Amino acid sequence: MEKPALTIPALINEAKQFCESESLTSNDYLFGITDGKAVGTFIEQKFKNHLTAVYSVHIGNAASGIDLPSSDILTDIKVTSIRQPQSSCPFKDARQKIYGLGYNVLVFVYDKTDDHQMKTSILNFVSCTFIEKERTADYQTTLALRQMIENKANTDDISAYLSDRNLPADDMVLFQLAEQILQNPPAQGYLTISNALQWRLQYGRIVTMQNQIEGITRIIDKVRKT
After folding, report:
1. Whether the Cβ atoms of residue 119 and residue 89 lie closer than 8 Å to each other
2. Mean pLDDT, rounded, of the chain
């Protein structure tokens, strides 16, 4: 029997069911493991195995750099602990911080509890969010740039701001980027992206967000908001 093609709505629905199921599942393998990368890799693979068992879907490899690279899905999967909800992703160019990563991000956030008597672990998925690619830029950078444009900033103003932010690009690239920003103002991003050899993505704002934002789907939301 031919498997149905994976769609974004189906991906969101499967993520919801996966979180609900895994939050009730005791796991021997993860007991005592404190390495967040090991936990994340295990969960990502388990979710991808589930998707391939049910749907016709292309799974990415190291060369593609994205877990679900098909043009109609174009989504990377991130798994992170609630204790410090962050991950890394490949750096392409400085424009990603302003215009987004270029792909959607599905973020699973767990709270891990070890049962020392039973020697098992439970990952309680407290948050799961689908972030459309248009919302994957840096929050503070896009907020400031949008305000500068509203206040009639020119190319020099924006170029100077980008330079002050230490974006990983030379002066000529920053000036060209400033011209592009004036012609095509960025959408408001909602990630925190730190400069490094790889981008460091932080999801604290996404996890605790109270407002409904177009382009951000809250799939699981158990985090108490203050």
Report:
1. no
2. 92
CB-CB contact of 122 with 113 (8 Å): yes
Domain locations along the chain: 8-85+102-136+194-221, 139-183
pLDDT in tens, 30-71: 888 888 889 999 999 999 999 999 999 999 876 668 999 999
Cβ count within 10 A of residue 198: 12
The residues pairing with 129 across neighbouring beta strands, listed in sequence order, are 107, 218
Instruction: Please give the angle made by the CA atoms of 136, 217 and 127, to the nearest 5 degrees.
Output: 90
Model confidence, pTM: 0.92
Q: Taking CA 60 as the corner, what is the angle to CA 58 and CA 63, rounded to the nearest 5 degrees?
A: 140
Instruction: Read off the pLDDT of each residue in 173-184 and give the average, rounded to a whole number.
Output: 96
Q: Are 120 and 27 in contact (CB under 8 A)?
A: yes
